[in-house]
Amino acid sequence: MTTYTYCQICEQACGLVVTTVDGRIAAIEPDRDNRHSWRDFCVKAANAPAVVEHPRRLLQPMRRVGDRYLPATYEEAIDDIARRLARIRADHGAEAIASYAGNPSGMHFASGAMLSLFMNGLGSHNHFWVGSVDQNALHYVAEQMYGSPWVMLHPDVDNCECFLLIGSNPAVSTMCWIGRVPNGWKRILERQRQGATLVVVDPRRTESARKADVHLAPRPDQDWALLLAVIRVIFDHDWLDAGDCAQARGIAELRDIAGSVSLEALAARCDLPLDAIRDVAERFATARTAVCLARTGPAQGINGTLTEWLSHVLNLITGRTDRTGGRVYNPGIVDPLRAGDAVFRPNRTPSRVRGLPTVAGAHALAELADEIRTPGVGQVRALIVLAGNPVVSGPDGRTLDAALGELDLLVAIDLVQRESHRHAHWLIPATHWLERSEFHPLLSGMTAERFAQFARAAVDPPTGVRHEWEFLRDLAFAMKLPLVGGTAGTAALRACTRLSRWLAKPGLAFDPAWLARLMVRQSGVVGWQTLREAPHGVVYGEPPVDELRSRLTTVDGRIDAAPRALLGYLRERLASSCVADPGFPLQLLSRRRKQTMNSWLADLAPPAVVGQDAATVGMCAADAAAFGVRAGQRVQVASRANAVEAVVEIDDDLRPGTVLMAQGWGSRVFDPFTGEAQAIGINRNLLVSNDDLDPLSAVPRLNGTPVTVKPLVS
Fold first, then answer.
1. Within a 10 A sphere around the Cβ of 21, how many other Cβ atoms?
2. Is the pLDDT of residue 159 over 80?
3. What is the DSSP string of 288-332?
4. What is the distance between the alpha carbons of residues 8 and 110, in angstroms, rounded to a whole number?
5. What is the SS3 assignment for 544-588?
6. What pLDDT sits at residue 369?
7. CA atoms of 636 and 646, how far apart (whole Å)
8. Residue 128: CB partners within 8 Å, gap ≥ 6?
């Protein structure tokens, strides 16, 4: 049997052809009839059958009894969890119950929407998510400038004549981060062959930097100073788009703050030659079309929000915002500007312990341990983890692991028992994305092309395993929580679900697909049946241009180029120094690989990848000599938060003063029956403090953490 679908591991959404024989996956290949994304096919999709048939996959609910887990039914799990949650809510309030959503839930509309409905029904604002470790800067800046955290602007690569990529390595990432550019890296290289300029800004000479016309290697965490210097040069030469500047608010304030600091001081702060900065400014401003993108690198630093903001400012003042060849807004089939808050209800309650505001409606993962361990009204006592591994994905996992062990109730919903589920009271099975069919109404806006695709199940879930959203729905019903339409509406949904089971007609049961179908029909862009019947996806119009300004949700309907909070923080940074800590003189950088999805596939990674960098620390030769270490030597890498052991690898692509460790390793997968665990590599995030945060986005310093390296006695 042949099924056409797409990979749901990341938003690149590669088109797939899945061949099954006798109900098992026999082959997965790129769908070359999917004109949108098949060229980015990678080993993550190719290895999906190994995840479906994982030897330690959860196939039934498991309840912790002492130090062991025993099999249980869904009915037993729902009854016990509902009873315990109801007691916690009655004794301590709804805010004592929290949730955490990991990366896979973002690609699964049904589970993400149902978790949101469940938490809203409880009346709890304590929702935490994985976006707070790498993408909060984007959402924070979007809300400040455009009025909504759900504004995503995508590069129009085919019409761009100058690319300025900051902290982006598309040769590996395939231009995928909070949006996608299918086949993006090869399209950029094609534009370069046609005469476009490619500028890459990264402390490491990455795979992408090797292809660049210009590579700048600034001091980590100081990309914002480079951007402010470029903006200053553009203001000085009046290389502005007068029309777009006139439509925005705050241009005069930007000019004032850019002019308040010397170019020499900014060049010194980012440690780049001033002539190189001037050259990049002129290339960008005088190109017919251009685009500036700040990506994961700076977004995981303590100045990531400043860098993200100034990248938008640079595009705006030079006429690259929502213009051909710049960054464009795609409203998709269901416009995130109108539907984002409807699906994920706005939450503006500050965190209890630190008083930090939410970003995109969620609290920061870095705060979760404090919220669990700090006594008082609102102390988190129960946590539902959906498709997440926060102990490994976030900062200072040892502290979070200890906090999770103190919870009254920890429920983990996942394919396997991971590092973060070590203390779980209940393990609830999840389904694989190849085992479900759905349309995600918000994903069509995550690209610069008007394209959408329906995901189709290629195989059935294991016998008896329910979808995550089904478990959450039934748990909400057991607790009599209002989901849709208030108490009366939810009672009707509950009755429909019971009737569906009695009649053995699943289509009668309440399903988040009802919401997706309603959203699509209300949009009027593409018919639901058209989506369902198009095996290779639907192209439903020409690429969008100039869609954003008419949809802005700011108070006055204008782009705010100089939000007060960002201006204030920029002034603080300009008044501060960036002198290295003498006790920790090196800065830690992160690298990722296509072969894994952070910690999600590390236990299935090919041996070649594991041997390559699962337990290594990269240093340039000069730094290795200065610290008295050599290639192949075991060393201790230490920060103020923690220390880990690694093996030195000489890497002269690194800027002096930086070290490199791979993201996503050091996560165990357990056998709940025996307690046996498998671990590969080390968790470099243990070195990152949960107090060292970007003050606006609350993202921890996963890139740029000060560390030192010490040789170990052999």
1. 9
2. yes
3. SS-EEEE-HHHHTSTTHHHHHHHHHHHHHHTT-BTSTTSEEE---
4. 13
5. CCCCCHHHCCCCCCCCECCCHHHHHHHHHHHHCCCCCECCECEEE
6. 98
7. 6
8. 98, 99, 100, 101, 362, 363, 364, 365, 367, 368, 390
Collapsing DSSP states into helix, strand and coil, what is residue 709?
Answer: strand
Instruction: Write down the pLDDT at residue 605.
Output: 60
Distance CA 498, CA 479 (A): 15
Q: Which residue has the tokens 């092309």?
A: 449
Residue range 610-653, pLDDT digits in tens: 556 678 999 999 999 999 999 999 999 999 999 999 999 999 99
What domains lie within the chain, and their CATH numbers?
2-52 (2.20.25), 62-124+337-445+451-539 (3.40.50.740), 136-330+547-571 (3.40.228.10), 579-711 (2.40.40.20)
- With H, G, I as helix, E, B as strand and everything else as coil, classify residue 23: coil
Instruction: State the angle between helix axes of 468-478 and 486-503 in degrees (0 to 180), rounded to the nearest 10.
Output: 120
Q: CA-CA distance, 461 to 433, in Å (whole number)?
A: 10
Mean of pLDDT over the chain: 93
Q: Average pLDDT of 659-663?
A: 93
For 702, list phi and psi in degrees, rounded to 5.
-70, -25
Name the strand (E) or helix (H) holding 523. Answer: helix 513-523
Please answer whether residues 698 and 366 qualify as being in contact, where contact means their C-beta atoms are separated by less than 8 angstroms: yes
- For 517-561, write each residue's pLDDT tens digit: 999 999 999 999 999 999 999 999 888 889 999 999 899 999 999
Q: Over the stretch 580-597, which tens digit does the pLDDT of each residue have?
A: 889 999 999 998 776 676
Q: How many Cα atoms are found within 13 Å in the side-chain-facing hemisphere of 597?
A: 25
Q: Are 120 and 677 in contact (CB under 8 A)?
A: no
String of b and e for 149-188 (b: at least 16 CB within 10 Å)? bbbbbbbbbbbbbbbbbbbbbbbbbbbbbbbbbbbbbbbb
pLDDT digits (tens, 9 = 90+) for 180-212: 999 999 999 999 999 999 999 999 999 999 999
Q: What is the model's pTM?
A: 0.96
Classify 3 as helix, strand or coil.
Answer: strand
Q: Where are the beta strands (DSSP E) in 610-665?
A: 616-619, 634-638, 643-650, 658-662
The position carrying tokens 């025996």 is: 674
**Which burial class, exposed, middle or buried, applies to 362 when counting CB atoms under 10 A from its CB (0-12, 13-18, 19+)?**
buried
First to last CA, the chain: 56
